[in-house]
Amino acid sequence: MSLIxxxxxxxxxxxxxxxxxxxxxxxxxxxxxxxxVLMEKGTxxxxxxxLTWRLxxxxxxxxxxxxxxxxxxxxxxxxxxxxxxxxPAINNVSGLGTVFxxxxxxxxxxxxxxxxxxxxxxxxxFQNQDDRRLFLRHNLVRAGITEVLPGSGxxxxxxxxxxxxxxxxxxxxxxxxxxxxxxxxxxxxxxxxQVKAQYPEVKFQLLGAVDERSRSGIKREKLEEWLATGVxxxxxxxxxxxxxxxQADCVVLPSYREGTPRTLLEAAAMAKPxxxxxxxxxxxxxxxxxxxYLCRLRNSPDLAAKMVQLMQLSDAELEQMGKASRRIAxxxxxxxxxxxxxxxxxxxxxxxxxx
Length: 355
What we know:
Order of helices and strands: HEHEHEHEHEHEEHEHEHEHEHEHHH
Largest sheet: 6 strands, parallel
CATH superfamily of the largest domain: Glycogen Phosphorylase B
Number of helices: 14
CATH topology of the largest domain: Rossmann fold
Radius of gyration: 21 Å
Low-confidence stretches: none
Helix content: 40-55%
Distance between the termini: 30 Å
Strand content: 5-15%
């Protein structure tokens, strides 16, 4: 939204091309022209081919000067459609999802699709150096068109620390993520079970949408099973994430891999101590021992140990960790930097087209 507002402020017309959902009206209210396009979940090659055709027809109809793509399907099929339509594209690899986590025939197909589609964009932004190096190692993209951004950035005015530090009683660990195995939800629940055995008063909360159709989606039945144990409190979904984060003592993300996780950026901007896995994306935001702790991948005992370690810090030490989080957010992840990089890339791409 920050980028959209910046583009509108520069006098550009912004069209949002996406499936219609609850956010469509918000985009319109912000000043966008909303253009609905059907985009189905799953990996059916025929529906994906139809998506490429629908995007091509849409691009031909609305005639944008440049297309900005996000997430795997628009990055792949949108790049192909934009090339067919003769329109320059800027892709943003905001995370690799399950493609580089679950090695199977689907991930092999995805790699081939990336290699084919990424011949076409004028620019490809990555959200961490690990992802960029991985794409270059697999020869999926030309090095010359790539650049690394600090995630999607964070609006430091929207996410602010509390006026005064205060430890909650009981202590609250919050995980903000879609309910997916790849996000480390199972490890979070297992670690919570271990910690609660020793400290029964501690609270563990999960905020995020259930996505059973995802390849790593956790069934609602499984979530209900966890909730029945009393170990976990499920908060559902909300547009007011900052309000929930404000009530937490620590934000946890035991994810298997990220671009640069927005949930950690938001929590860092709000001066919260963090615990995350030592994997690409997460380790860009969490500096071990400085603003939180990094735990081992798929290792709930280590995650539980880090939770106990953090919980046993004094109020002064927790406050210092929170201040370090805010400082990292200010120095590395201010969204004004991301916006300037996009404005520069758009100017560069459209100048080449005019020439």
